[in-house]
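Lecture 7 notes: from sequence to structure.
We start with the chain below.
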Amino acid sequence: MPSDQGRKGRFDVTEITELIRLAYEAQKRAYTPYSGFQTGAALETADGRIFTGCNIENAAYTPTNCAERTAFFKAVSEGVTSFTRIAVVGNYPGKKGDYCAPCGVCRQVMREFCDPERFQVILARGPEDYRSFLLKELLPASFGPADLER
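Predicted C-alpha cells for the same chain:
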C-alpha cells in the first residue's frame, strides 16, 4: 500500500507507479561488480520528460556514481534543469530491498536543481509499495544556491 505522507492529490498514483517501473528498468543496467548492490532512478522533468539512471561502481570507489546523480547529470547535460520528482529503488539482485534513500551527495545535487518545498522523492520497494517525501524532509537546513548570492 502506498504511503504518500498526505500528498496523494499532487500526483496520480498511476504516474508514480510508472516512474517506479522505469526506475526498476534502469536498475537492471547497474554496473556493480564490487558491492553487487544495484540502484535505479527515474527523474521527471517539469515538462514531463523522464531521465533514468543506475549506479556505476569503480574499483577506486570514490569515482562511483549513484543512480540519482546519473539521472540528474544525464538531464542537465541535455540542458534540462527543472525537475518535479524522482523515484529511487535499490537492492541486491534476487532479494527484496528496503526503501533506498539517497545518499548525502545525491541529496545535495537534488538541492542544487530542485525546490526543496516542492520536489518529491519517492522511495520504493515495489510498484505499489513506496514512500514519498519532499526534499526538505530528507535534507533539512540545507545549503543551496541562494546561500552563495553576493
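Points to note: Residues 74 and 85 are 15 Å apart (CA to CA). The mean pLDDT is 91.
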